[in-house]
Every structure is written in C-alpha cells, then in structure tokens.
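ingest -> fold -> write
write: protein_1
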Amino acid sequence: MLSKTCQYAVRATVYIAIRSADGMKPGLKEVAREIQSPEHFTAKILQTLVRARIIRSSKGPSGGFFVEKEGTDVPLRRILELFRCDHWFQRCILGLDQCSELHPCPVHREFIPFRENLKLMMSSWSIQNLVNEMQSGSFYLGSQDLSRMVIPELKNP
C-alpha cells in the first residue's frame, strides 16, 4: 500500500524514537539493519527526516540520530506528505486522472469512506502511538531482534 520509501521512513522514525526514549542515538548502520532497509537508501530517508526536523542528528563519538520528546507527536500523515506518499488521500484508486464526483470510476463511491478513514487515522496517529504499540509487546517492526530490544523481558521467556 505504501511505497518502500514511506515504509522505511515510518519504521526508521519509530525505531529512532524507541532508542531515543532509552537515551540512545543509533547510527545509520544500526537503523538500516534494524528496519531491514538498504543503507544508502536509509541515509537519504534519514537526511530528509532531519531536514524536516522530524528527527535530529548529532556528530561525534556519541553522535547518531534521535527524536526529541515533542517529535514523537508528529502525525504519520506528515511523514507521508514529506515523502509524497499521501496520494491515497487525493487520487483515484484505479489511477484515473479524471475520476471525480462528476466522472467517477467504477469504485469511486466505495473508495471514498476508505480514503476518509485512512486520512483520519494517518492524521490522528502519531509516532508515539506506534512507539506505544511496539512497547506493548504485541507488535514488531523490522527484525525480530527489534522486538526483543524494545521489550527486554522477551529475551528470557
């Protein structure tokens, strides 16, 4: 449903937010490994997220990427818009240029409620919501090691 860019951007932001909550600043290699994304691709995504001030970076021996507390309030929709993955909110599901209320495609009217619900969810769910879901232990993002890292009690069942 989402492009790989958007998938990796959301996963990276959540991973960095989780590590930031533990006082850690993961580096590029760690983020790429844990979200299962190619390193060079992850670097471009992180650079865009830093420029948009969704995440921060610091240089030096104790440097890396981090999310400040207020950064976890960022709605998922902002990340989707940043990477131009918000087409689900405007475009025809069949990709027709002329689809509208006046000239609907065969699924136009059925898709409108879905699109509105998706828009509402992406606008109301924040990075913190995803962090909370991860920390509940019921969900994972990327490698299984991430689940164990987020929920230490899973290391020794």
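write: protein_2
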Amino acid sequence: MLQPTRTKFRKAFKGRIHGKATRCSKLNYGQYGLKAMQPERVIGKQIEAARVALTRYMKRTGKVWTRVFPNIPVSKKPTEVRMGKGKGAPEYYACRVKPGRIIFEVDGISEEVAREALYKASAKLPIKTKFIKR
C-alpha cells in the first residue's frame, strides 16, 4: 500500500478540491493515459488495486507510470466512540485528485490493449475517468 515514509504533520485538515488540474494534465511519459474527470480523494489501496488490474491485463508488456501519490493522512475515530476527545488517529493516506489530472500512463503496447487495460483500472477508482492518447 502506498504511503509516505514521513510527513511534516501527523494529521491534516480535510480540505476541499477546487478547480481544474494545471499540473499533470498532459501526457509526459507514455503514449496513452487515464485522465480524471471529477474531483475526489483517491486512497492508496484504490491506486494499488488499479495498478495491479492494469499490469495483469497487460501481461507484463509495456511500461506503466503512476502519476498520483497518496500523501494526505486521513484520520478516523473508532466506531461507537462519543463525540469530543480530539481528532482520531490516521487511518489511511489519500491523494486529492482534481479534474484533468493524469492518473496512469502506459507505453509499449497497442491502443486496443491500452484502452482495455485502462478501462479495467478505472473500474477500481471512485471517479469518472477518460482514456486519452498523445
């Protein structure tokens, strides 16, 4: 599961995801990519599940680049705990994804294989995505 080795602060504010992505909005490495179409927090487990689905379908041919990294700690209080007594402990790490952000890039495979592989990866993510090519 993806998570940072160390962070400046143990807990973070929830925050809001405003506007469209200006960085990571164009293909830099691969020929094909998966672009986010709506704002959402994507957690590390979802990114890993999508990556595994992607590489399994590609059968270890080509190359995959992951353009997102979960660096925001998301805290959660245990179940059936009364209100108050501070913020909960960090539960998992998430990445704030803006619309227009490239999530995955692939190269070294045909367009049909890339389209199907990225479709399978998008099924593991909680956001609407779009297949793009250079």
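write: annotation protein_2
The CA atoms of residues 65 and 127 lie 19 Å apart.
The first strand starts at residue 32 and ends at 36.
pipeline exit 0
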